[in-house]
Amino acid sequence: MTTVSDLLNAKGRTIVSILPSETLESASKLLTEKRIGAVVVRDRRGKLAGILSERDIVRAIADRGAAALGLRVEDLMTKEVKTCLPTETVKDLMRMMTLRRHRHVPVCDTAGELLGVVSIGDAVKARLDEQASEVAVLRDLNLIKA
């Protein structure tokens, strides 16, 4: 069974983050530049303070127009962030992401240190790879036909 740690080892542990005091305009540019759908918000000590997604920005613009781009990240970020442990299985992570409707989940160790971020796309790819490997093993054992 693939774990979140296995997934991070395969995809990398790069964490793109922003300060809560930055503007939505800065966050939008960062998301575009890095081609990601959410950014981790860290305080000045580097601790997880929240998460801001493309959806958060789009909702703000829909509500306030272009003036929303001047708002601070901390005004719109999700402050109570659901995280996962690196020891959790990708299957369990996908279940949680589906039930809670989260597309991005920060990975933290038991001390609360940020280790990476996993997207639903990362999790789906890991599960598909795992299933393809299982099918290959069954084919090798002649238990299923091609």
UniProtKB/TrEMBL annotation:
<dbReference type="InterPro" id="IPR051257">
    <property type="entry name" value="Diverse_CBS-Domain"/>
</dbReference>
<dbReference type="InterPro" id="IPR046342">
    <property type="entry name" value="CBS_dom_sf"/>
</dbReference>
<dbReference type="InterPro" id="IPR000644">
    <property type="entry name" value="CBS_dom"/>
</dbReference>
<dbReference type="Pfam" id="PF00571">
    <property type="entry name" value="CBS"/>
</dbReference>
<dbReference type="InterPro" id="IPR044725">
    <property type="entry name" value="CBSX3_CBS_dom"/>
</dbReference>
<protein>
    <submittedName>
        <fullName>CBS domain-containing protein</fullName>
    </submittedName>
</protein>
<feature type="domain" description="CBS">
    <location>
        <begin position="1"/>
        <end position="69"/>
    </location>
</feature>
<feature type="domain" description="CBS">
    <location>
        <begin position="77"/>
        <end position="133"/>
    </location>
</feature>
<keyword id="KW-0129">CBS domain</keyword>
